[in-house]
Amino acid sequence: MNAGRKPTTLTLLTSYQCTAACENCCFASHPGIAEKLPLWRMLDAIEQAAEMPSMKLVVFSGGECFMLEDELVVAVARCTERGLASRCVTNGYWAKSVQAAHARLEPLYRAGLREINLSTGDHHQQFVPVERIAYGAAAAIRLGMNAVVVVEREMDRTFHAQGLLSHPEMAAIRDHPNLIVFDSPWMAMEDRDSVRHGPASLTNHLNIHRRAPCESVLDTMVVNPRGEVGACCGLTREQIPEMQIGSLQDATLVELAEAAGNDFLKIWLAVEGPEHILAWASTIDPRIDWENRFNHHCDACRALYDDALVRDVLAHHWRERRDDVLYRYRLAHQKPEAEWPDQSTRHTPIASSRQEAIDHA
Amino acid sequence: MSMLSPVDQATSSTVACCLELEIRDEDGRLPQGNMFPVLTHLDSGRTWRILRYARAFDGLLFRALPPGKFRLHVASPRHETVEMEIMLAAGGRERINLQLKRKPGRQPLIIDIGADEDTLIPARHSVSRLVSCLLSDRAVLNAVEAPLDASDAIEKSERHHVRRLLCIGFPTPRRPLAQRLFWSIVDRRCRLEALLATVFANEAVTEMLNCEPAQVADEARTAVDGLDRLDIADALMMLALYSAPWKAVMSEVCRTQAGIRDVLIPAGLAHMLQPDANPAIPTRPSARGRWAGEPSDQTVLEAGPLIARIALVIAGASEAQPAYFAMFDPVIRQMREGNA
After folding, report:
1. Contact A289, A347 (CB under 8 A)
2. Which residues of A51-71 are buried (b: 16+ CB within 10 A; e: fewer)?
3. Are A182 and A71 within one domain?
4. Has residue B93 been placed in a domain?
5. Tens digits of per-residue pLDDT, B269-297?
6. Count of domains in chain B?
7. CB nearest to B110's CB, from A191, A228, A263
8. Into how many domains does chain A fold?
9. Are B112 and A28 an interchain contact pair (Cβ–Cβ within 8 Å)?
């Protein structure tokens, strides 16, 4: 479909190797994995992304992308050269002190990195002390970068964002405009009972009107360490075969994005989100059980694709929603020709234009 | 048939045994490709740990296992899952036969609607006729200045489609005047919807939507009093037609058109669009998604009409898809009763 959501973000899962081995890690990352995305493949993907007018941002994640050492700096620099903003997602293991964190971040900053995302919480802290999150965030802020700290949220958690903000290093920067700290649901990946959430946070008919569309599907392209490409950066993407849209060995990012954009289900997810689709499906087949089960978009999406009852409803009744969904999709994503901003200018929170990104480098 | 070979490589006092697993399928073949093996320790309750120390499935090596019972859960990149129980006695050296049985594969659920631009246009002849109607400046002007129901140019049976066309901006008129007017309509609706989203961001307001039905009915009854017909029509169209992608539209519309003075909202809500009018009342979420101040009772009170709009919109949509929207009961039912 030519008129539709175009990918704005390329996420490179550089390796599933990680210094931590968190329970329910979305990619089952751990220290024993050797497989990684070769540098040439990363650079090639960045080059392909740079040729896509809609692309704005490259996210380096994993696994632990800081284990790439100097290769990460090279890849970030390539993004900057090509006018793409970059972001690194990390557990902060390398921030053993503010000085050490600064030493690690400074080359990346010089290469053009303007945002770092740090993950912490009960699970991460089994492997990475919270002090390192504080040191990493503080060093990033002092360098002039944006620092986003994501704290795991589940029902029985012992660690909260307040615990992080009370750290002396964080206290000094807690009101800085470049610092954002927020909670994100921790999700069960293998054993549903292993992560509990409060009943108020689970989707049901009383709160479904507050569930938003999926902002990731067709917006983010993910390349995993095997060079396979996904159509979203969801936590359960690896568990949904339909979200694997091909391999860089066989096709380009542009080809894969265009093919994925023709899948009505992905469009539907972008327009309504998985919870609304599940709810609708349950009106056709009342055996579909969706209420008070899902805390997270991605959990609902996994169920949508995995539940045979839902699949059957979608396969046989999707035409009933076709017109409405496509209309709304068109509204959201087709640009009026006369008033649309120049495509050559990329706006991002980090580097507002290609020239700015290059200047920083 | 599979083989489990304990290997004595204990390296710490907590280690009871270490295992080297080689698992083959029923035909004696090693699984191909990368697998996601996860070993779950079943004996340690809430503190149970998942041990992941190998990805290649052939020659799977687990080190530093604590004593106890384990479950091996394996998933391929396509996530055909396998579960196997492994019973380990502390320090034991056992041979356990494991069978690798994959779940039956399933066909991918891909609904390919093709790249043809025509697929965007539902095959309804009335749509194309209405498009030509809207392309005249007069029709657009009528749509701006008068409620759609009053437009003689549109047959009663087609009014629903006209509303859709106006709301979603399809197709965009090409003549400059028509285009400007067209986008002013979309702009107005988008801004109003953004206001709704702002209200949703207020926890106090969203809690109201979840409160006791009788209480909701009272709120709705109070709120509806202040609405005029056009506002209700706006709200009905907005949420029924494009409640989901308001963010994307807003960002693009606001990029080119500054100012929110001409937004059609009840006078009582004007302060929400004027940040400096009353500093005590939060006007919009901060950049980080938090309110600049604490929501006050006054804010909640003033937001009443918007809540009613939301309810009305959902109630309006329920007429089109009663089974789906019946799920919003009892809140919506009470809202509708309040409206009546």
Report:
1. no
2. ebeebbbbbbbbbbbbbbeeb
3. yes
4. no
5. 333 333 333 333 333 322 222 222 233 32
6. 3
7. A263
8. 2
9. no
Residue A358 lies in a domain: no
Among A211, A242, A259, identify where a domain stops: A259
DSSP A346: -
Ranges in chain A, pLDDT < 50: 334-361
ipTM of the complex: 0.73
Q: Which tens digits make up the pLDDT trace of B146-180?
A: 333 333 444 444 444 444 444 433 334 444 444 44
Among chain B residues, the shortest Cα distance to A308 is held by B106
Among the partner-chain residues A190, A205, A323, the one whose CB lies closest to the CB of B38 is: A190
Tokens representing B158 are 């087609």
Provide the CATH number for the domain around residue A29. 3.20.20.70
A-to-B residue pairs, Cβ atoms closer than 8 angstroms: 173
Paired tokens of B136 = 């005249």
Contact (CB, 8 A) for A196 and A186: no
Q: What percent of chain B has pLDDT over 90?
A: 0
Contact assessment for residue A135 and residue A124, using Cβ atoms and an 8 Å cutoff: no
Inter-chain residue contact A180 with B288, CB threshold 8 Å:
yes
Binary contact (B73, A190; C-beta < 8 A): yes
Q: Is B7 part of a structural domain of the chain?
A: yes
Q: Residue B217: which domain range? A: 188-339
Nearest Cα of chain A lies from the Cα of B115 at a distance, in angstroms, of 4
Which of A28, A226, A323 lies closest to B52 in CB terms?
A28
- Which A residues, 195 through 234, put their C-beta within 8 Å of a C-beta on chain B? 205-210, 212-213, 226, 228
B75-131 confidence digits (pLDDT tens): 554 455 565 656 554 343 444 445 555 555 567 788 887 755 444 433 222 222 222
Asked if the structure places residue A341 within a domain, the reply is no
